[in-house]
Amino acid sequence: MSTNISKQKREDLLNKIKAIRAFISAAPQDENTGNLLSYLSELEKDVNGKKYGLIFEEHREEIDEVLDTHTPVLTEEKDLFIDNGGQMNFLIEGDNLASLKLLEKTHKGKIDLIYIDPPYNTGSKDFIYDDAYVVKEDGYRHSKWLSFISKRFLIAKSLLSHNGIIFISISDIEQANMRILCNEIFGEQNFVGNLVWANKEGGGSSDSKLFRIKHEYIVVYAKNIELIDIAGVRINNEDRYKSSDEYEAIRGKYYLQKLGMGSIQYSSSLDYPIDTPDGSTIMPKDNNGGKKACWRWSQDKYKWGKDNGFIEIKKDSKGIWTVYTKQYLKCDNDGNIIVRTNRPMGIIDEFSSTQGAKTVRQIFGEAKFSYPKDVNLIIWLIERIANKNITILDFFAGSGTTGHAVMKLNAEDGGNRKFILCTNNENNICREVTYERIKRVIDQERYAASLKYYKVEYIPISERLYYEYADELLKHIRELVELENGVNFTGNAEIAIVLTEEELNDFVSRLENNVKCKKLYLGHDILMDAQQAQILRDRKIIVNIIPDYYYQELEG
Q: Which segment of 123-137, 289-303, 349-363, 439-453 scores lowest on mean pLDDT?
């Protein structure tokens, strides 16, 4: 019998720590004994640390230093607002770690699907860490990437809804490391699949000295795998449905499938006689070469099928009767109208980076972004969630393909999906590529979609009087309310926001001139008097209390 040496050593060390703690605890207590007990607790914690998993050097980023002393807030670039109806979508410019921390306030447990295309860490100027490219010669190349990714994945997990799902594009370089990291963060039991995407057209690349590589991966994890369902893809063998009957207009064409099949496990309840057109009867064994067999349908189901045109009984050239069920293209065997699908393949070979680059060139007239994903690939991923009313997040938004895909898919199937995109503005990418792409495709395709453009800014925490800090922070609550609720306060007479008692008094006093207001967002610490409350009720204005978690920095 094999022995887990590491486990054994760990247990021995923990027992020694326990004995030392007991000895120290029995001695006269002073500052030194207290310090020793504290040291032992830290040592015990370290010993009880990683048993299996990914071990890497943790690194701090410049953004970590900023977030230690500053609070991130959002400000709107109002001149970039796109108002074209449909769902309100959002583009956030700034370090995505800060953006994710803000989204924790507004969208914790509310994101249904995340798609990201993070830097692949090729060592060829694709991954910037603290304003410097990480090159192949960097001895901390992989640990820097893992440290960078892990902080963002931890928040991403908290943002996913209970039945949420995350798709992560990655190459061979970090795929193995990322799988182990995701097992730790999302749980190994929530691993959905490792999809292989044939991303290159033609013969493949020279990424490997020994093989021609023409694929990447899309790693998929669920928040809770028991609660998700992956929608199938449309069948590609419709030509097998060739026969027609009087139900074709509704059910489509059909093919025949034997009611008696030898592969069905025998059950006496499924072994019953069936009358043929000439008055004879047949048993399932007669359709199975004399072997003990049974029908696929129960006797009650068979009667229903015969009465509703799902059964066909035919005599072959040898005079033998066979019972068939009609397998319709547009209808299942319970009479429900359906779209026939198959379980999606784990190999995706329908889309390519070449097509992604071609789309970008068509939009901009030039190659504005390196290696963009094909918009149809992202559509294919989004379609794996049957719900058409979901929120989609991409916090490595790049050229904006995810936003483009959401709008295109909504236009095709009448969905109400909405997106949130986050990206930095390195080389003006957010303003000149991500935003510009969304704007152009809305204009060109006339998509019913709107967009708000936010920038991440920072309010210093230290060296300020509390009330000054609080006043500054309150100036940016409006953006969080808009982000969470998908609304626009600017120029919208139907909704209003009140963050101070002075604003409340002013709002109530002006209601005579504002007959359109239907909803008021009210600061959580503002108390209305009875008269104000009655006025709002009389006007049938719905009052939504702004969540107190928006103010967590003010409350400690």
A: 123-137
Helix axes 401-413, 436-445, angle to 10 degrees: 20
Q: What's the CA angle centered on 516, arms 514 and 518, to 5 degrees?
A: 110
**Percent of the residues in the chain that have a pLDDT greater than 70, as a whole number:** 93
CA 460, CA 464: separation in Å to the nearest integer? Answer: 8
Please tell me the predicted confidence (pLDDT) of residue 129. 77
- Whether residue 115 contacts residue 97, with contact meaning beta carbons closer than 8 Å, is answered with no
Chain Cα centroid distance, residue 414: 20
- What are the tokens at 43? 């040592």
- For 321, the 3-state DSSP assignment is strand
E strands, 400-448, are 418-423
Report residue 547's pLDDT band, with 50, 70 and 90 as the boundaries: confident
pTM confidence score: 0.81
Q: What Cα–Cα distance (Å) separates residue 298 from each residue in 271, 273, 308? A: 8, 11, 15
Cα dihedral 392→191→61→47 (10° resolution): 150
Distance (Å, whole) CA 100 – CA 439: 24
Residue 293 has pLDDT above 50, yes or no: yes
CA distance from start to end of the chain: 54
CA distance 91 to 164: 21
Q: For 316, phi and psi rounded to 5 degrees?
A: -85, -175
Could you please report the per-residue DSSP string of 435-463? IHHHHHHHHHHT-SEEEEEEEEEEEE-SS
Place of tokens 């990714």: 149
Phi, psi of 486 (to 5 degrees): 65, 45
* E strand or H helix at 282: strand 281-282
Whether residue 296 contacts residue 325, with contact meaning beta carbons closer than 8 Å, is answered with: yes
Res 239: pLDDT:
87
Each residue's pLDDT tens digit, 414-462: 999 999 999 998 889 999 999 999 999 999 999 999 999 999 999 988 6
Mean local confidence (pLDDT), 261-281: 86
Amino acid at 289: G
Strand partners, 254: 243, 328
Comparing CA positions, the residue from 109, 114, 113, 87 lying closest to residue 486 is: 87
The CA–CA distances, whole Å, from 162 to 108, 111, 308, 312, 508 equal 10, 9, 41, 46, 40
